[in-house]
C-alpha cells in the first residue's frame, strides 16, 4: 500500500463516512490530486482552487442533495487550497 492509498483509505474515507462531509485545507497544495482521485458519482469532490464562488455554489447544491431522503451520495469532499480560517 502506498502512502497515497494509506491517506485515502485510512484517514480521509473513514472520516468522510463518519461525518458525511470532509473539508481538506491545503495551503501547500500537496493533497489536491489525492483528493480529486476520490471523486465518483456517489462522492463529489468540490475543488475551490479555481473559483471560491463557483465552488461554494457547488458545495451548497451538493449539501442540499445530501439532506434528501434516499440520496445516492455517500458524502462530499471539499478541497480548499488555503489555510484553515482562524475564525468561523
Give the SSE layout.
Blueprint: H1 3-19, E1 21-25, H2 32-36, E2 45-47, H3 52-66, E3 76-80
Parallel strand pairs: 1-3, 2-3
**Could you spell the SSE succession in H and E letters?**
HEHEHE
* Overall geometry: globular
Binned strand content:
5-15%
Give the beta-strand count.
Answer: 3
What's this model, at a glance?
The chain is α/β, with parallel strands linked by helices and 88 residues long. It has helices at residues 3-19, 32-36, 52-66; strands at 21-25, 45-47, 76-80.
Description:
The chain is α/β, with parallel strands linked by helices. The chain is globular and about 35 Å long. Helices cover 42% and strands 15% of the residues. It has three helices and three strands; from the N terminus they run αβαβαβ. A three-stranded parallel sheet has the order 1-3-2.
Could you name the key traits of this structure?
single chain, 88 residues, alpha/beta, 3-stranded parallel β-sheet, 3 helices, 42% helix, globular
Amino acid at each position: 500500500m502506498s502512502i497515497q492509498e494509506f491517506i485515502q483509505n485510512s484517514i480521509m474515507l473513514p472520516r468522510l463516512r463518519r461525518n458525511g462531509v470532509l473539508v481538506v485545507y491545503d495551503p501547500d497544495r500537496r493533497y489536491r490530486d489525492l483528493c480529486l482521485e476520490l471523486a465518483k458519482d456517489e462522492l463529489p469532490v468540490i475543488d475551490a482552487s479555481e473559483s471560491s464562488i463557483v465552488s461554494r455554489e457547488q458545495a451548497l447544491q451538493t449539501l442540499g442533495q445530501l439532506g434528501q431522503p434516499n440520496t445516492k451520495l455517500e458524502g462530499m469532499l471539499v478541497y480548499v487550497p488555503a489555510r484553515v480560517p482562524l475564525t468561523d
